[in-house]
Amino acid sequence: MKPHHGDKPNNAAPTNAHAEPRNAKSGSEETKHISKNDRTSTVPSKRKATTKDEPSKAPRRSARGTQQPSIDPVKMLQFLVSPASTDLCRPKDEIEDLKTRGSHIKTYSSSTFTPFEELICAVILSRPISHALGLRSIRTIFNDPWKFNTPKSLREAGPDGRRKALDEARTQHRQKTADELGLLVNVLEDKLGDNEDDVAMARVRRDCDYDAEKVGKPILVVVLDEVSLLNSPKELNIIKTSVKGMGKTGIDIFRRRIQGVWPECYPFIDQKTSASLEMFGLPTEAKDLESFIERHWKELQVEGIEAKYEKDEKRKAFVRLLEHAVGAHLEGNVDAIKAEAA
Q: How many CA atoms does the CB half-sphere of 274 hold within 13 Å?
């Protein structure tokens, strides 16, 4: 099962450079023929005899058949949710960007975003582009000189400004994405927000009467790889049907992130993130992972999470864990994470 953001891993799987050669030459054969005329006469090949004082060497074995060491899920949880794992979960060019421009810049991997910014991210990352290109696009449009952080800033940029920002990001599907960002402004003003400065999307929350807070924990039903928003927050249904380009992948990305801010969307794990968690030996069901974090909460390092209450901090730690698992998977750093967590 492939992970997401549209969703392409940044690196292809490496070939096995340590595999045994398929055919050995005659030097490794047990016997050698003496001549063409005497095909039945053979002599032993030249090999050093093993003396009783000299232990024989163990036979060579292919690395492919060796059993991988087991993963300690508690250690994995502790490492993945900690800030120490962040750089293994982000693209290399983002690390370089932080060194060059400073740690103050907004990044998808480690910054706190408003609901409107999360919606923009979901639109961008639902495109069929690599993880690195998607995150570079987000860094470009959310920071100087563009700062498309509000509906007003997107509107004022106009079609040319939105396209130029994506050109600077050197991403793909630039015109289509620029058009969708322009349409997003109209949708926010018409259905999602109160005005062009409303980054909390307060209108859709109010109109839905904070739906799932009344009906209990929501669920997302997936049927034939399509999203059925049965018993899930009405807000997601409105977003899916109103925002151009927001299909199953986009809704999964948005809900995975927004659950840190909107309690009624918690706990949620999409199918592709579940596959990433499985690679790290962690629970793949939302309720199971929530309980696992709760049991080991006092053992976790959650520096950098902005939350007023502990319950909010736990939700945001849940989101950080999901994002780190997906990011490490997409960047091809699964083995590196396992080594660091051991």
A: 12
The torsion region of residue 61 among left (phi > 0), alpha (psi -120 to 50) and beta comes to beta
How far is it, in rounded angstroms, from Cα 205 to Cα 2?
32
CA-based nearest residue to 259, from 251, 156, 224: 251
Q: What is the DSSP string of 141-158?
A: HHSTTT---SHHHHHHHH
User: How does pLDDT run across 86-117, given as a tens digit for each residue?
Assistant: 999 999 999 999 999 999 999 999 999 999 99
Per-residue model confidence (pLDDT) at position 114:
96
Contact 326, 10 (CB under 8 A): no
Q: Which residues have a Cβ under 8 Å from the Cβ of 265 and sit 6 or more positions away?
A: 212, 218, 232, 233, 236, 255, 258, 259
For residues 49 and 65, the answer to whether their CB atoms sit within 8 Å is no
The H or E element that residue 44 is part of is: strand 42-44
Which of 299, 293, 291, 287 has the alpha carbon at shortest distance from 324? 293
Return the bridge partners of 8, or none: 130
Token code pair at residue 103: 């740690």
